Amino acid sequence: MSDTPHAPTGPTYAVVVPVKPPSRGKSRLVGLADGAREELAAAFALDTVTACLAARHVGAVLVATDDARFSAALAATGAPCIPDGDSSDLNATLRQTAAEARRRWPALRAVALCADLPALDPDDLDAALEDPRISGERAGFVADAAGIGTTLYSAPWEHFDPRYGEGSRRAHLDAGAGEVLGELTTLRRDVDDLPDLQAAAALGVGEHTRRVLDALGLF
């Protein structure tokens, strides 16, 4: 697998995506069997990475995951994978992954993205990446649909310091990051529970998630 990024027009970004091993992901999808949750977590990540790679302004995607078997499926999409350096601390993982992305692709700009965006439209991602709050000299972010969390964070390499976690929208604002406004519906639609999944399905999810939903008879 080559680490050479493709060449989109306009500003180019290296997207870093942290992916929990699917066996440990999406515990809040209450009412589904463990195997179903695992399949959905894997599908969400695959659809998120696939959408990233289809965006015009994304030059490369680097995934951090401790699941060696699943990393092969992710790498097959065109996104190289590295081990999760600190699985107990999401922000530490993102900083370490961004440092590796900078080593590989120093000409690109860092973007952190959640791995649970199965309805992500590459056009929404491109629109966010074109926003001056993302492409400017300081950090910028996109809040989730609930207006509490964060789905996307970006900053120049030397200022890359994400604040994901409970109440991350407020934490990013307090740290001086600029908030990207506008609809960006599919970029904001992360999935934590079944109502979120139903909302994502209504928007139109990627092929991996759609396949699992059909097999489960959901939405």
TrEMBL record:
<dbReference type="Pfam" id="PF01983">
    <property type="entry name" value="CofC"/>
</dbReference>
<keyword id="KW-0548">Nucleotidyltransferase</keyword>
<dbReference type="InterPro" id="IPR029044">
    <property type="entry name" value="Nucleotide-diphossugar_trans"/>
</dbReference>
<keyword id="KW-0342">GTP-binding</keyword>
<dbReference type="GO" id="GO:0005525">
    <property type="term" value="F:GTP binding"/>
</dbReference>
<protein>
    <submittedName>
        <fullName>2-phospho-L-lactate guanylyltransferase</fullName>
        <ecNumber>2.7.7.68</ecNumber>
    </submittedName>
</protein>
<keyword id="KW-0808">Transferase</keyword>
<dbReference type="GO" id="GO:0043814">
    <property type="term" value="F:phospholactate guanylyltransferase activity"/>
</dbReference>
<keyword id="KW-0547">Nucleotide-binding</keyword>
<dbReference type="InterPro" id="IPR002835">
    <property type="entry name" value="CofC"/>
</dbReference>
